Amino acid sequence: MTKNHTTPARRLAGFLKDWSLPRQAAGQDPMSKAAKSSMSEKLRPRLEEADTVGTSICPYCAVGCAQLVYAKSGKIIHIEGDPRSPINQGTLCPKGAATFGWATSEARINRVLYRAPHGERWEERPLDWAMDRIAHLVKQTRDETFVEKLPSGETVNHTLGIGSLGGATLDNEENYLLKKLFSGGLGMVWIENQARI
């Protein structure tokens, strides 16, 4: 067990020397280094470590706030608002500011997990398999539930067997294309967007 040989008087002197308030009270300009301590002078911004800076758009809503994504050795180390954007001018709302957390979270699922009907466990599957399965099930459901005419003879060309709930992360152009595909191409009636709910 080692003893701390620093006397209380020495610790107090070091504290007063390091604390910015006595320096400012003594007349040192508050805008100078008076607010720095020996500890804070050693701190470096983590952005200095970035070897790549990319741009992105916040995925949370349709506003489209621009982001700067800092990476080191291919891993994201920080995300902040892009001050060059006329939309958000470098600011982010609390959800946008949390982008780094969800993008790098160890709990984030970044692979396809499938649980068979009545299954009790999740299985990992390839993305190509999942996309083919989704396409197959959409076509099968549409074919089985498509109605060309009502009993009254009115032409409807729709299906009530498929619905869509879009996310607020889609922009106007994406929503336009999805609406054309879903209603015009597939005949879907139940089309909604999370941004309206």
Automatic annotation (TrEMBL):
Predominant localisation class: other
The protein's required cofactors: [4Fe-4S] cluster
Keywords: 4Fe-4S, Iron, Iron-sulfur, Metal-binding, Oxidoreductase
Any one Gene Ontology cellular component term annotated for this protein: cell envelope
Gene Ontology biological process terms in this record: anaerobic respiration
Cellular compartment(s): Cell envelope
Record-annotated 4Fe-4S Mo/W bis-MGD-type domain positions: 51-107
Coiled-coil features, chain-numbered ranges: none
Gene Ontology molecular function terms on file: 4 iron, 4 sulfur cluster binding; electron transfer activity; molybdenum ion binding; oxidoreductase activity
Any single Pfam family the record assigns to this protein: Molybdop_Fe4S4
Record region (Disordered): 24-43
SMART domains named in the record: Molybdop_Fe4S4
Matches recorded under PROSITE patterns: 4FE4S_MOW_BIS_MGD
Keyword Mitochondrion: no
Family, as annotated: Belongs to the prokaryotic molybdopterin-containing oxidoreductase family.
PANTHER family in UniProt: FORMATE DEHYDROGENASE-O MAJOR SUBUNIT, TUNGSTEN-CONTAINING FORMYLMETHANOFURAN DEHYDROGENASE 2 SUBUNIT B
Protein name (record): 4Fe-4S Mo/W bis-MGD-type domain-containing protein
Provenance organism: Noviherbaspirillum pedocola
